[in-house]
Design brief:
Catalyzes the phosphorylation of D-fructose 6-phosphate to fructose 1,6-bisphosphate by ATP, the first committing step of glycolysis. Helix 8 packs across helix 23 and helix 12 runs antiparallel to helix 13. It contains 25 helices and 27 strands. The radius of gyration is 27 Å and the shape is globular. The strands form 6 sheets. Strands 12, 13, 14, 15, 16, 17, 24 and 25 form an 8-stranded mixed beta sheet that branches. It is of the alpha/beta class and about 775 residues long.
Length: about 775
């Protein structure tokens, strides 16, 4: 896949034609993928066609296949579903139907097809590609096409993007639509829990997902459900008694409600379906609890796409066009997908084969294997769920005390991390201590024991219930060491932003002087700014990103019916441009000004002229994002004055400073799940570290690797010593020196119609899904 000579990306597609279609069940974020495919296609010089109504439109041809323009995909980023329509198509299953489809493509000179859909749609596309030359022969014989046309379209390239809320396609971490479906589900769960608590009820919720339990599993983790039924792992024999014991136990420790999540394809060990009604009758008859069942249904497919799905769709669209234009007759059909935060290309048929193997493993009762085949992310979720839901605290205590504190500004998802830290700690036999108000609390001794029931229902709560402060420990180190001794603290979990990182370093430095600080500690990054060294993501950033994106949608909509208007919006993030850049991708911004990508007067001039040109077409909205500290002199007011003056007579301007609403709100499913997994992983690591550091009846930890940041790096959660991360940190501006998301900035500019050079040297290479068995 490595190319020798550098290719000019704006010429890659000259003389080529690409068709894009959405097929099968709709999913939120498909429009983002369509928009990116169209715009990047046009950017490379290719002609791009919409195929309306999925494969049906491909077969019927005519007006269903229309050329797309830059403007034709404007304002569709925030719409749910698919604007170009999707249909289940019987005709395409027949050879006659596929021949008709081939004829329509040949006539328009289209030899590149981008399909956005589920595994069925993608398998169909691959079959179409495999019999392409045979179909051309049929059409030639029938005189439908000329030999010249057949020669010109001798080969069909295919690239797939997986659009499905079920997340049931193997090889991909997240399919387009999954995150948005989780948003819908969590909105409902949050609403239901408030009513259930009022009446001490048991609620049973059925979520979608066909034969895949992903939605059910993540929902259960995100809302702290008492039980989840998924098709990959049916409950053991006698689950009925186990479930009743569990519900009774939850009530006995003071819980007012029980939540049970059921995947629509849930089965027992004998392959019999487990439905809401079966569980409802069981709980009502056996326990006499007031029980209600809710089937969520098609609500899950609806609504606007989440920020994650828009960015995912946009990134996949770019990658798909590149994959199509780089394909040769020998490259296998591929799907573009996301692994961790990296775009990858995978052979389509290998993914389909593994996806089928999961179904087969489930049918044959090889359940452990089914969970493994679903992929790392599914397996991690399942293991975390098992840890939290089906284990009772050991009778023997470990005599270890672990203290938890929140440091820095509050953000959504902190409480989820605290909850799982406390509960996993208790299950490990430790005593957990809550420290209120950050390092201040550690110095002043506002420390108290925290038990299992205390953190019940915390996953869905925003802010920081423990209380948090920005103060650093250096000035109070003496008091802190005294309290660590007084409360007999053996390990620390510090959940917070850049202050948590710096505070952790200060504690490590003070170890030389204070022996009490020689205890293992772990920092869990939690901040809306996403500026903690050692992690690609922080807890809280996804919630803030969604808040900004929704607000931008509303602001853009507020101008409907008025003349042309440009909005200048200031986001948080300190010196870190993550929020501004990602929100720019998710809301379709024309520019995002950030500190890491320096800009001067010439850049501002270019941006203003670019907007003026754009506003002369049918486009009526402009969106400019500015990170709060991107430049001390080019302030939000300055930009507002500049755009207002230069846009006179063409557009008018409005400005918004979003402020603290970015730190509030209910945590998104991603932040709840991420916080829960980070908390669990941190405590398990501490448990191992404490065993290593136990000598002569006491704990002594002074090695660099006994004080770590737990971070998400590319595809895995890893522990990195605080001292190792010093090198990569710009302490003055409170940001890491290298940041992965800066690579996405060119995409933002291309989608806003700038003719910049997209660096195509670092392409995603084709990876194999099927391990050599």
């Amino acid at each position: 896949m490595q190319r020798s000579a550098p290719v000019d990306p704006t010429k890659m597609g000259v003389g080529r034609a690409i068709a894009v279609l959405t097929s099968g069940g709709d999913a939120q974020g498909m429009n983002a993928a369509v928009r990116a495919t169209v715009r990047v296609g046009i950017y490379t010089g290719a002609k791009v066609y919409f195929v309306h109504e999925g494969y049906q439109g491909l077969v019927d041809g005519g007006d269903n296949i229309r050329q797309a323009t830059w403007e034709s995909v404007s304002m569709m980023l925030q719409l749910g579903g698919t604007v170009i329509g999707s249909a289940r198509c019987q005709d395409f299953r027949t050879k006659e139907g596929r021949a008709k489809a081939a004829c329509n493509l040949v006539k328009l000179g289209i030899t590149n097809l981008c399909v956005i859909g589920g595994d069925g749609s993608l398998t169909g596309a691959n079959e179409f590609r495999n019999e392409w030359s045979e179909l051309l022969q049929i059409l030639l014989k029938a005189g439908k096409i000329t030999a010249e046309e057949a020669k010109r379209s001798s080969h069909l390239n295919i690239v797939g993007m997986v659009g499905s809320i079920d997340n049931d396609f193997c090889g991909t971490d997240m399919t387009i639509g999954t995150d948005s479906a989780l948003h819908r589900i969590m909105e409902v769960v949050d609403a239901i829990t408030t009513t259930a608590q009022s009446h001490q009820r048991t609620f049973i919720l059925e979520v979608m997902g066909r034969h895949c339990g992903y939605l059910a599993l993540v929902t259960a983790l995100s809302c702290g459900a008492d039980w989840v039924f998924i098709p990959e792992m049916p409950p053991d024999e006698g689950w009925e008694d186990h479930l009743c014991r569990r519900l009774t136990y939850q009530r006995s420790i003071g819980h007012r409600l029980n939540v049970i999540i059921v995947a629509e394809g849930a089965l027992d060990r004998h392959g019999k379906p487990i439905t809401c009604d079966i569980i409802k009758n069981l709980v009502t008859k056996k326990l006499g609890f007031d029980t209600r069942a809710t089937i969520l249904g098609h609500v899950q497919r609806g609504g606007t796409p989440s920020a994650f799905d828009r960015i995912l769709g946009s990134r996949m669209g770019v990658e798909a066009v590149m994959a199509l234009l780089e394909a040769t007759p020998d490259t296998p059909a591929c799907v573009v997908s996301l692994s961790g935060n990296m775009a990858v290309r995978l052979p389509l048929m290998e993914c389909v084969q593994v996806t089928k193997e999961v179904t087969k493993a489930m049918a044959e009762g090889r359940f452990e294997e089914a969970v493994k085949l679903r992929g790392k992310s599914f397996e991690n979720n399942w293991n975390t769920y098992k840890l939290l839901a089906h284990v009772t605290a050991p009778a023997v205590k470990s005599n270890i005390n672990i203290a938890i504190l929140n440091v820095g500004a509050p953000c959504s998802g902190m409480n989820a991390a605290v909850r799982s830290t406390v509960r996993i700690g208790i299950l490990q036999g430790h005593s957990m201590l809550a420290v209120h108000d950050g390092f201040d609390g550690l110095a002043h001794g506002t420390i108290e024991p925290i038990d299992w029931g205390y953190v019940g229902g915390w996953t869905g709560k925003g802010g920081s219930i423990l209380g948090t402060k920005r103060s650093l420990p250096a000035s109070m180190i003496e008091d802190i060491s005294l309290n660590i001794a007084k409360f007999n603290i053996h390990a620390l979990v510090i959940i917070g932003g850049f202050e948590a990182f710096v505070g952790g370093l200060e504690l490590v430095t003070a170890r030389e002087k204070y022996e009490e600080l020689c205890i293992p500690l772990v920092v869990i990054p939690a901040t809306v700014s996403n500026n903690v060294p050692g992690s690609d993501f922080s807890i809280g950033a996804d919630t803030a990103l969604n808040t900004i994106t929704t607000t931008c949608d509303r602001i853009k909509q507020s101008a409907a019916g008025t003349k042309r208007r440009v909005f200048i919006i200031e986001t948080m993030g300190g010196f870190c441009g993550y929020l501004a850049t990602m929100a720019g991708l998710a809301a379709g911004a024309d520019a995002a000004y950030i500190y890491e990508d320096p800009f001067g007067i010439h850049d501002l001039e270019t941006n203003v002229e670019h907007l003026l040109e754009k506003m002369k077409t049918t486009v009526k909205r402009g969106l400019i994002l500015r990170n709060e500290k991107c430049n001390a002199n080019y302030t939000t007011d300055f930009l507002f004055s500049l755009y207002s003056e230069e846009g006179k007579g063409v557009f008018d301007c409005r400005k918004n400073v979003l402020g603290h609403m970015q730190q509030g709100g209910t945590p998104t499913p991603f932040d709840r799940n991420f916080g829960t997994k980070m908390g669990a992983k941190a405590v398990l690591w501490l448990t191992d570290k404490l065993k290593e550091c136990y000598r002569h009846g006491r704990i002594f930890a002074n090695t660099p690797d006994s004080a770590c940041v737990l971070g998400m790096r590319k595809r895995a959660m890893i522990f990195q010593p605080l001292s190792d991360l010093k090198e990569d940190t710009d302490f003055e501006h409170r940001i890491p020196k290298t940041q992965w998301w800066l690579k996405l900035r060119p995409i933002l500019k291309i989608l806003a119609k700038y003719k910049i050079n997209l660096d195509t040297s670092e392409t995603a290479t084709m990876e194999h899904v099927i391990k050599k068995r």
